[in-house]
Amino acid sequence: MPDRPARRLLPDCEEVHHLTMKGLDQPLSWVERLRVRGHLAICEACTAFSAQMRTMREAMRRMGRED
To answer: Which residue range or ranges hold the Putative zinc-finger domain (predicted)?
Structure first.
């Protein structure tokens, strides 16, 4: 039996927020992507958070190109 606690199939909102931020900086594993997508399918709040983070990241990239 592994030493770490068993993971739930779907992450909670806190973990989705963490994975969303992580995914902005580096690629997520296919397991992480699958878990996030499953959660986003049932959670409107996290779906909105994820969209807001992508929008902010894109706006920051555009600002960097204007220099």
So the answer is: 13-46
Predicted model pTM: 0.76
Residue 1: pLDDT band with limits 50, 70, 90: very low
Q: What tokens does 13 get?
A: 């909102």
Q: Which residue has the tokens 């990239």?
A: 61
Q: Which of 29, 49, 39 is nearest to 9 (CA)?
A: 39
CA distance 42 to 28: 20
- 8 A C-beta contact, residue 49 and residue 17: yes
Q: What tokens were used for 41? A: 């399918």
